[in-house]
Write a structure and sequence with these properties.
single chain, alpha+beta, Beta-Lactamase, binds methionine sulfoxide, GAF-like_dom_sf, GAF, GAF domain-containing protein
Amino acid sequence: MPFSKLRTEVEKIVQEHEAPVDLRLKEICELLKAEIPYYTWVGFYFKNGDKNELKLGPYAGEPTDHTIIPFGKGICGQVAVSNKNFVVPDVSAQDNYIACSIHVKAEIVVPLFKNGENIGQIDIDSNVPDPFTEEDERFLEFVNEKVAEIL
Ligand code: SME
């Protein structure tokens, strides 16, 4: 499914006001994983209360041991402090990386802002090397903006 159509689908899920927010986030993860062939694992992490750590939220894909990630650790932890998108074409070239599966080749993490504050992120793992383009970044920024509206 093209990104333009996926944007519409994401908006529809966000507007399912009768469904709990976590269920809607999970549906978004499942949609992206199912429709974008190189999205192997899709999940949200959020700041864990007032602690300087991330906690795993809804996701689609294999369960991960990394349900808590301290700020600064791994790609996710670095985005929690940089407030910037982090595109990793080749995870084996990263020193500060937390491996979730030996099959993962690439990763993209895009921060999620609510009222200008970095409160979490969307994290995508790919088993395909170097698959992400600026189109993915713009799309995932859009997803996070929509999600922020219901948080
Ligand atoms: N690879 C991430 C950890 C989270 S898993 O990909 C689900 C990282 O380096 O922060």
